């Protein structure tokens, strides 16, 4: 587009034309329009103004920077902000222009330049002369707002060479400047600042104390922290307020293995009182920090304080629960934790049984087993789950014995979780009790869990046990026997399963065919296919649903399976036909595609949808023509499957 046309468009009364002109200039990056675009920044239309900003940023470089600088002197705050935004986006390409502003006679312009450099955040502004002199030298500027901005900027651009000047600036008369200097020294991790910053804690305001302690936490290494904490101890004894967050940051380093810090009893007592007061008086974030501090101190009174705090909470979410458990567990080597928690359980106002149970499991103490046995009486389902997990984590003989007893508990959920834990812990020793429990179980989900646990224990005893269950009169036990044998996947049990395929009960026949498929042997396929001739539709349907484990077998592509599925397309049951046509999608070839298309053309809506899904996998040009006839089918399932198939086949 010609420049004259763009100039006219920038002056058009139509905002859309002005915006289009800005976008065209942005694409062309035509530097000749810089002055015009700066004028457009005053446009009342936000879209046009944004277009001008984008165009100027795209052009970039010294011409844009120099054209934008006058905006920093504007009385209009919006224009000043736009100027800073553009200079920031232009960035290092305009570094010379921006640096020149640092010597401007207007304090506001100097501050804007410093803020722009901070926003760009690149250390190249700080390296060597004159950049270092230009920026860090301004720490002695007459305007405190400039000095504060410079301090912030030096931290953001990681100006380590300016650290000595920043340390000197800690004596600035203005509180806000001192605060900004402290923050930057923390970012730079300047160790030479540790002493001077700590002096500020002793004599300065609350705002400065907070920033100083946080900076010390960032700067100090493990070896630096002990003397600093002793100074903090003195301040606390004098009644000065400190930040729990900053103190705990120091604790994290002091109590690390590198520091080898051994606090005195007086030290522990001082900080115990400090953290206790924070828990009593401050907000949740500070309280959590204080709890971390108590966990480091490991005084028994600290454990009591944490437990009392936990009991005071109206609700405990998962994150809080995990945090409290970790904090309490940290006391395990410092005090008789199990005995102290036993006393807490006896408290009628105890509301943290679940937390205590998790702690007992985490410490894996054998002496916790009797306590957990007491806790399980009257426990909720969630608490029972945690008690079982605790027994499993402890894993001693006493814990396993407790799990065997829970296997006979009145609560079905308890029996279920105990069976799972016993399978992992006791292995073969759990076989007898699990079969005994299975025979007396009344809930199907619990029976399935026990069966699956037994099937995961590879032994002849388990196989014999399942075969014995096949002779039980009750259908649920025979069904579980077949489920277990199928999961075990042993060819030796095929005769027993085949015998069940002629059981009088359709449910047992279904289970038998599922088991045959689960074993996943090619030799079982002919027997499985017999199920498609069963007189019960649910049995035939279960056979097709159970084909998934067989898909990885070489026999899956055999003609006998294809023939059986094609025959099933004429089944009287719609869902048998549905699954048959769906499975045929795994077999490429014109002959199979013909049968699938026939089901697409003549089948009910669900069958049509299944046929479309199959054609999506193996369809040809013939399939596309057939599918296009159903693009507007009234059934949304059919329509969706057809559209997806056509989209896939077009690729």
SSE layout and pairing:
Blueprint: H1 3-10, H2 15-28, H3 34-40, H4 46-59, H5 61-68, H6 77-90, H7 95-100, H8 107-120, H9 131-136, H10 144-156, H11 163-169, H12 175-188, H13 194-203, H14 206-219, H15 225-237, H16 244-254, H17 265-281, H18 284-297, H19 300-312, H20 318-329, H21 337-345, H22 353-363, H23 368-375, H24 381-394, H25 397-406, H26 412-425, H27 431-440, H28 444-455, H29 460-469, H30 475-488, H31 494-500, H32 506-519, H33 525-530, H34 537-545, H35 559-568, H36 574-584, H37 590-602, H38 605-618, H39 621-628, H40 636-650
Helix pairs in contact: 1-2, 2-4, 3-4, 4-6, 5-6, 6-8, 8-10, 10-12, 11-12, 12-14, 13-14, 14-16, 15-16, 15-17, 16-18, 17-18, 17-19, 18-20, 20-22, 22-24, 23-24, 24-25, 24-26, 25-26, 26-28, 27-28, 28-30, 29-30, 30-32, 31-32, 32-34, 34-36, 35-36, 36-38, 37-38, 38-40
